[in-house]
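Recall the central idea of this unit: under ordinary conditions, the amino acid sequence of a chain determines the structure it adopts. In this exercise we apply that idea directly, starting from the sequence alone.
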Amino acid sequence: MAQLRFKALELVQSRKKIEVKLPSGKISDYFGTKAFGREQMQVALSPQAFRKLDKAIKKGQKIDSETAESVAAALKTWAISKGITHYTHWFQPLTGATAEKHDSFFNPLKGIEEFKNSELVQQEPDASSFPSGGIRSTFEARGYTAWDPSSPIFIIDTTLCIPTIFVAYTGEALDYKAPLLKSIQAVNDAATKICKLFDRNVSQVIPSLGWEQEYFVVDRALYDARPDLVLAGRTVFGHNPARGQQLDDHYFGSITPRVFEFIKDFEVEAHQLGIPIMTRHNEVAPGQFECTPMYEEINKAVDHNQLLKDVMERVALKHDLKILFHEKPFAGLNGSGKHNNWSLQTDTGVNLFQPSSSARENLQFLVFFVCTIKAVYEHADLLRASIASAGNDHRLGANEAPPAITSVFIGQQLTSVLDEMDSKGDVKVEKGDNIYMKMGIDKIPEIILDNTDRNRTSPFAFTGNKFEFRAVGSDANVSNPMMVLNLIVADQLEKFYKIVSKDLEAGRDKRVAIVEVLRDYIKKSKPIRFEGDGYSEEWVKEAKKRKLTNARNTPLALDAYLSKKTLDLFRKNKILSELEVEARHEIMLENYIKMMQIESRVIGDLALNHIIPTAISYQNRLIENAKGLKELGIENKENLQTISKISEYINNIRSLTQEMTEERKRVNKIEDPRAKAIAYCDEVKDKYFDKIRYSVDKLELYVDDEDWPLVKYRELLFLR
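Accordingly, the structure predicted from this sequence is:
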């Protein structure tokens, strides 16, 4: 292993920077040239076919076969003109990654290229090997992919990729996209009804998303020389370097030339695919970076995030680099998140979370603002569960990420507005009262973007004209948390509309009725609002008093999926059936179990087969040295102490690793997935991982650098 390490380091030294030649012209000249979206369809289709397609997409209706045939013909012509030979239904199974099966346009029996509407609209991939949570048995292989026309078709290499949903033969969703699309429709239906109370011209509300993707970049050879990175996505051992991120000099610093060329390269492909990447910069930890796009409709944004991760990984290989999306690849350094900036936009161009200069319009803002806070309060546990994963457990609550306790930050000024409304909760507001002045609604225009502070310890924060869900992990498919967010807000908006409609039918003034409901929501949801330091012990104690859940690990957090409240929520809003929710709960538990199994095995392999033999070999040299000195009449106490310490750490590693292995064997026999996941968390991970790591990392300081088998942090993190 030590030889592999130094060969990798030599290879890094010999690397030559790849100079990326940018396409000629402006970005706008090639933006979207590899995507077949709405604009391309409008050019390629007849006006009648495009109108029918556009209407079907906006209304979420089925596309008739004649229109689908027109799209298929236009697609084939467009694709072949670009040298494309194959097509695939690109979908997002419950693995968290994307999947595809390529078929050729060429029909060898006819000797021509073909692409029918049936091949565009639906395919039948084998569903037996994808996670189903018991919905499908292994021998029940049939599953279907169905075209999602609301997301642009795109080209990767020589393949036309068609975004699709993925469902079982019996109709259950086996992917992330299908429930996301349902949640988009749910929040559109609920929000549009409320908007019509203020503006009858609103006919659609679209949830939008702007994600911030954080990631680490390491040299490919050094990555390959770290079995833990290859197999587990994170380093299970590694002593912190003398210099890490403590100088705060990497954040927003100059991007090193090699990484800069890589970023330029993947940005070109991203822009060709129509992914609106706007920002790039160094993040806090050495070797850590971030990219951010412009806001998009949420379904398209999710697809673009999954697609970009694939693009980044492929382009990185051209530059002999490797991308780490794991939430905590390096202990003691910042982890990586994916902040999700979420808002609601009307088809009339209004951001429903944007305060206005008009008190009347601010009442609409308050409705959506307060209902969102109330939704988070009512379903905080589900929102926490939506971002739970083995990787994110390492990140949540650390100094760069929000805690596991869900809370909402809204800033001092909006807090004052809501508190003022709350304090007047007992005041009866009649029809003739000046409701705007009494409620402080006229003050809201003062809250502009620069006036709304940010709280990096808050999992869910209002940041001016949007809510930022900061707890999402960098490796996550954001469909799941965004689906949950859409769902809980849609449900709360429906409840609000039902109450207000009843008051209006009884003859109450609309503004009075709205404010009275908002007052009630503000009072009831107050416990979820927190403006202070989420890392403090005081907040943990205070959150407990407020009866807020602190689910510190994934197995416990996932319990929220099976609560009666959650099952009723999904069923009532027709997003997922009880069977589908239970299946997803089981899949997430199984994924957690498998990750703990992998990490435990990696720890055992590295500890017993690499670390201990290396340490013993080095210790033997010290012993021989001590014997030689003694023969010369020299007594070296420091040398003897070092030998003793190395022996102590070796024994600790050996005994703890053997105990962990036996415990893992016992836990593997547990049949219930929840009990098994909890046992892996408590009895394997928490009991052994850090203890074994402590002794290994101490040995790294003792053993000769020439002998140490693992690439060190200082070698991994500082790319040149």
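The first strand starts at residue 35 and ends at 36.
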